[in-house]
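Q: Hi! First time doing this. I have a protein sequence and I read that you can turn it into a structure. Is that right? Here it is:
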Amino acid sequence: MSNTNEHNPQKTTIALFTYGGGMRGLIPAHIMSRIEDKTGLRMADMVDIFTGPSTGAILNAAMTLRHPEHTSSPRFRARHMVKFYEREGHKIFPADRFREFRGIVHDFNNRTLKLNQLNWLFRHGHYDPSNLGRALKALYGQARLSESLRTLVIPTYNLDGEQLRVLETDEGGGHDWVARGRASLDDYGGHALWMSNIRHIAQGGPSLRTPDVSLYDAVMASCAAPTYFPCHHFKARYPGKKEISYTGIDGCVFDNPCVSYLGSIRKMVPAENKLVMLVLGTGYTNKAIKKDDWNSYGALGVVDPVNDLPLINIFFHAAESALMESFVDDLGRDLYVFNSSILPESGRTDIPSPQIDDASPENLEKMRLFSETLMEENSGQMDDICHILASNRDRREEERRQSSIGDRVKKYFTFFGERETVE
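A: Yes, that's right. Below is the predicted 3D structure, encoded as structure tokens:
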């Protein structure tokens, strides 16, 4: 990814990936706020592609939301999202008595848990989704995915495989091998779904079609973390297609920066462009497991909250660990990552809780301090990415200016050409 030559530098595309992690979304919100303070610009002024699941989708959708009166500008700054987490966190994840039951769902020796309470926990999401829903509706209003100011990709996992082939290429489209290849590999089971609004390049081809879906529904589905919230059922319509029903759960079940890069981002970057990728984390939580501990868990113990859901954590992190080396090799110096472990084993002091539902004032402060430490430890990288981001905004403004001049020149010659024809 080197420059084509000294006088014709390679155009840059900047992609931002924001991890999921519930309340820990406050960490990337603080980092974005610092970037905006250092550059004097908003994230949507500088970034071309916004992607990431769950709480990352909440942030990205807000950062690309248009101002209702100044539609060429974003509505929110990152500091507004810091306030969002601080204000709404305890409403979305209330510290009620059910939170205490999470660790004893599989503790059959505990006789104080009544059967009807256990059934309630198994049959419903742990938290009332209407609290999250109200917060997101207040944040996004009636906005549609297609109205995002910049390219926005919202990942969710669709449980209902009936709609799997909705994006197959049309007949005669010249890409029949895509449809044939996909049909030979897929079945009608659930599947990963990237709901995208592509704005940084001209749209062309079925894979770039934007679904008509509310921003609320897309983000709500991406946030439906298993065992925390029920799945989110919603409808969407692609151009030229019938209305589709989706049943979405948390995009974190498949999406991470490596998968997102390979499955979504890379194909959206023109071949002649240089890709710079910024990854904002919510703290690493993948812990090592000793063989004796694993063997002692038994059949139920590997999915028991008492043991921190070891098998589920492995599922979340396995694909990322398998692809990480190739991902880093591909991007090289064009990859900027702000993340660190929040496990006690890391040796850090005063780290935030790894639990995604801890909205206590004490944990909010720990997340602020953690993000501050993260930025201080990577101050050089912070300076570099701020410079790259600001330069990308300058390049974008220059392109807009040149385009405006070109339009005026075109109108000028069109006007005088028409006069000469009349005369």
